Amino acid sequence: MTKDCVDHSSPPPSAKIHNQTHTETGRAKAISDGKVILVATTIFFLLCIVIAFIFSATRRTTKKPDNRGLVSKQSVKDEVLPVQLPPESIHRRSSESNRRSKSGSRRESATKTGMADMVMVNGEKGEFRLQDLMKASAEVLGNGVLGSAYKATLAGGLSVVVKRMRWMNRLGKDEFDAELRRFGKLKHCNVLTPLAYYFRKEEKLIVSAYMPKGSLSYLLHGTTDRAHTNLNWPTRLKIVKGVAQGLDFIHKEFATHDLPHGNLKSSNVLLTETYDPLLSDYAFQPLASPNNVAQAMFAYKSPEYVQYQQVSPKSDVYCLGIIILEVMTGKHPSQYQIDGQSGIDIVQWVQTSILENRALELIDPEIASNASSTDNMLRLLEIGAACVESNPDKRLPLNKAITRIEKIS
Ligand SMILES: *[C@@H]1O[C@H](CO)[C@@H](O)[C@H](O)[C@H]1NC(C)=O
């Protein structure tokens, strides 16, 4: 299913600076209030940032109960990255002391000491090295099940997201390299192609372009009004269509995988300036440590895994269904929670309401007022419900789901 893929990729670095500035001003207050430090030169320091962030984030959420809204304290912590936390949660840190003043000589010694450098897998946005990242100003974006992420703005103006990957220890260096190079070659307007990676036995980083609008999860459940604006019905439909197209591409590209995507959830769907969705964190199953893979990837929350410890490409369809129901209801699914306690059991709620002919009540009030589109909204809800069917054999196949989604206008 090829669709005309307009190039929505970010403008070149020079233009990028201007794009970033308006989001920056929104954060200016939070940033000036925050503890300002420079980013250090060692990976160890990254770890400190992450620990400090977790600590301060926990403290802040307990202090500010008004911050909860639809996104509970729990859900913010459970998100798989990249998470766009509300601006008030974002810190900027800098170090008083640049402990490695000799950083300039590190590149040369890197190979001698066995210290690896970044490996570029996609040079479209330009080349950079680990050193450039370490010198960049950084901002913690959040932390989740798979690891933590921060945003770094490089000297040239390019903004990237660096994710520290947890539980990605199955593959050795060469195999990891082969997988990441394969990801780096992917080209689809609804798929986020990584730019670079960093590999050491005890540390894996994946670098991608920064998307200023953040994730679908942030847009739907973020606590600021800014997050919700523009998520009208046409935009939501466009997002669902794009997610389905991206998933279709991933399924063709990784057709031999048990789980071609494996971690499709709203916090792994990023939005471009024009609200075109980009899927991230796909095809990680072969990289993930076998002992942790079920914790790390959302497809393992599917009914077939919970009941029979089985996953298949159909598990991705379940994940797509959750996103559709989430987009249509505006509710934060309990399925995303580790404990399954907070949020709303969106599957149960939708199935019951449809059975009882109360499907209209499911539609997010923010879009329900668009009466001319009610029928189409209900149609999309039904497709979502057919995608979360608990028996994978009765679940809508991906190609059928896509055909039906594309018919909606
Ligand atoms: C209502 O939906 C129609 C059809 O998608 C769209 O053209 C229109 O802009 C929508 N109106 C609002 C206020 O979102």
From TrEMBL:
Q: Which UniProt keywords apply?
A: Membrane, Transmembrane, Transmembrane helix
Q: What is this protein called?
A: Protein kinase domain-containing protein
Q: Where is this region: Disordered?
A: 1-26, 81-115
InterPro entries reported in the protein's UniProt record: Kinase-like_dom_sf (IPR011009), PRK1-6/SRF4-like (IPR046959), Prot_kinase_dom (IPR000719)
Give the residues annotated as coiled coil.
Answer: none
Give TM regions.
36-58
Where are stretches of biased composition, namely Basic and acidic residues? 89-110
Source organism superkingdom: Eukaryota
Q: Origin organism of this chain?
A: Hibiscus sabdariffa
Give the Protein kinase domain ranges: 135-409
